[in-house]
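Anyone up for a design puzzle?
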């Protein structure tokens, strides 16, 4: 949520086109406004406004700004309505200090009142605006920009990533972070700051990851990092193996459909982590309980993990929403493995829970972004190999998370048969994608519905939840996922011919019971869309429509394959409704505030 970028070029070229290019690649984080600040001839130039990036750029020409260094921001409103005044960058009344900020300043009101009493004048309703005023205040007291920033973070409480520039110290950007993501890029032509790596992949792939409380100083000669005691920190430089092309649509209409089509590759690449996962299992030793902690789509992947681990390895396994974790924290001990799953590795609720879990238990992070906060705080890390995911609705990172969990469960249980089945999953996914025209046509038939039900049993119950979530996220249609056996405990009262019911029916132990549940909803007039084996004649005779899956896909690996048509259904209904699947309203890719 929110995104920041900074750049200082080694030469005298204008930086604004680069800032605009970089910040545009962070729109997936959610935003309602955009702004840039550059420095030239002892003046800070600012252009900003609310609205879509292309609309604001058409109005203001954001690439046409002088100066070879600057900062940029896409805002997601938390304090103050979306407006030009509330947009970032913010500047002090002396026009000397401009900053961009991602996060929330919890004590901003009391700081603001104090600054107003000292004569400072505020223009916005944001929490952020106190920051440039504080920095300006401390610089007037004799501190340089770096130490004024240091003084400022000693006063503010909350989560933040901040980048600042000042007319008093040209050719310098100072940045810091606490509980919000910030990376530093070292490029051939300059030095960069960003909330996430896709923003700067085109310009820098050598990355530094600042820790909380460290101060980063960028100038034309390089990057210097200081710790809280002003000591220079020699940071390790890591090279990202993602390419700039991975963060582009490459001919697809939307990132979401591109990423759906990349899922077979994501599974194949994540399967290469088998040896590393075995090393983690060997080192973990005696574990009597496993606890997954996650949010959203990652929560559904975790639920699948619970079914796998308990059925295959016999280890009691819980799944806790990260936002609810504190209510269960007292149950942890040194025999508990706590597994944190997060696409970004920066989810605020998960990070807070991870710090608590580290006090008592062994911790494992399953993340997609190298160098993210979870990778630096968890004892063990499995990095999924999905590549950058730009679409807000998770697709390929979900199947990559599932693949990691399947590998972990299979290796933990020493289940060689399951490991062999996993090798076939990429081909099964590709087969589903070959049937995309049929799924597209089916989806159009369900565009009318105001509500959907999704039913699954056992391993496919979390898949039903994920299918319903995808529908809600991007079509804005209400969808509910249910364990099929729970129909008679309330939901059956809602079934009629206006509500489609999507039933996930893979061959296996739960097949007969799920078919009975299908009969229940059909007898009450439901339009049943079933997903099942291509040779299942009984299913074809009972359901209104059937999306056929290779019958070799067993019940246990069904979640990895059957989720693909559910993603496609949501995508194509979204297009029918005229919505943008990459930019669902009110949602952002990386939720870094609680």
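Challenge accepted. My sequence:
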């Amino acid at each position: 949520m929110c995104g920041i970028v900074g750049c200082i070029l080694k030469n005298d070229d204008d930086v604004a086109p680069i800032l605009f290019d970089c910040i545009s690649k962070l729109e997936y984080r959610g935003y309602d406004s955009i702004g840039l600040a550059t420095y030239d001839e002892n003046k800070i130039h600012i252009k900003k406004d609310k609205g879509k990036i292309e609309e604001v750029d058409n109005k203001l020409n954001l690439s046409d700004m002088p100066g070879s260094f600057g900062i940029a921001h896409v805002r997601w409103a938390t304090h103050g309505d979306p407006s030009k005044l509330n947009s970032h960058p913010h500047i002090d009344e002396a026009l000397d200090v401009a900053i961009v900020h991602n996060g929330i300043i919890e004590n901003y009101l009391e700081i603001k009142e104090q600054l107003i009493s000292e004569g400072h004048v505020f223009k916005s309703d944001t929490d952020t605006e106190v920051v440039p005023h504080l920095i300006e205040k401390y610089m007037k007291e004799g501190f340089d920009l770096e130490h004024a920033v240091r003084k400022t973070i000693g006063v503010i409480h909350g989560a933040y990533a901040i980048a600042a520039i000042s007319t008093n110290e040209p050719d310098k950007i100072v940045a810091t972070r606490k509980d919000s993501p910030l990376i530093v890029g070292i490029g051939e032509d300059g030095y960069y700051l960003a909330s996430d790596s896709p923003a700067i992949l085109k310009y820098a792939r050598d990355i530094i990851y600042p820790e909380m409380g460290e101060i980063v100083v960028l100038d034309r000669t390089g990057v210097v990092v200081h710790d809280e005691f002003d000591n220079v920190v020699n940071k390790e430089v890591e090279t990202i193996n993602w390419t700039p092309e991975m963060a582009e649509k490459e001919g697809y209409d939307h990132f979401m459909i591109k990423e759906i089509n990349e899922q077979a590759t994501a599974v194949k690449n994540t399967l290469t982590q088998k040896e590393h996962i075995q090393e983690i299992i060997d080192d973990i030793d005696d574990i009597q309980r496993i606890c997954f902690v996650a949010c959203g789509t990652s929560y559904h992947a975790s639920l699948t993990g619970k079914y796998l681990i308990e059925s295959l390895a016999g280890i009691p396994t819980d799944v806790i929403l990260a936002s609810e974790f504190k209510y269960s924290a007292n149950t942890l001990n040194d025999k508990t493995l706590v597994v944190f799953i997060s696409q970004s590795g920066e989810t605020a609720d998960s990070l807070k829970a991870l710090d608590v879990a580290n006090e008592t238990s062994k911790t494992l992070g399953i993340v997609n972004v190298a160098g993210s906060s979870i990778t630096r705080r968890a004892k063990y890390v499995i990095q999924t190999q999905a590549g950058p995911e730009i679409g807000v609705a998770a697709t390929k990172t979900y199947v990559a998370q599932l693949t990691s969990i399947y590998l972990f469960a299979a290796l933990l249980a020493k289940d060689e048969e399951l490991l062999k089945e996993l090798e076939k999953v990429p081909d099964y996914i590709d087969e589903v994608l070959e049937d995309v025209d049929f799924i597209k046509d089916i989806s159009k038939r369900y565009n009318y519905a105001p509500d959907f039900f999704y039913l699954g049993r056992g391993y496919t119950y979390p898949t039903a939840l994920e299918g319903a979530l995808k529908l809600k996220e991007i079509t804005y249609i209400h969808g509910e996922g249910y364990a099929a056996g729970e129909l008679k405990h309330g939901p059956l009262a809602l079934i009629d011919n206006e509500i489609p019911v999507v039933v996930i029916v893979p061959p296996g132990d739960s097949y007969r019971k799920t078919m009975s549940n299908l009969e229940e909803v059909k007898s009450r007039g439901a339009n049943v869309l079933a997903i099942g084996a291509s040779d299942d004649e009984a299913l074809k005779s009972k359901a209104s429509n059937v999306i056929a899956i290779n019958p070799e896909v067993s019940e246990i690996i069904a979640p990895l394959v059957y989720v693909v048509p559910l993603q496609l259904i949501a995508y194509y209904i979204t297009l029918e409704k005229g919505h943008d699947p990459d930019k669902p309203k009110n949602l952002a890719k990386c939720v870094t505030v609680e």
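A detail worth pointing out: The chain has a mean pLDDT of 93.
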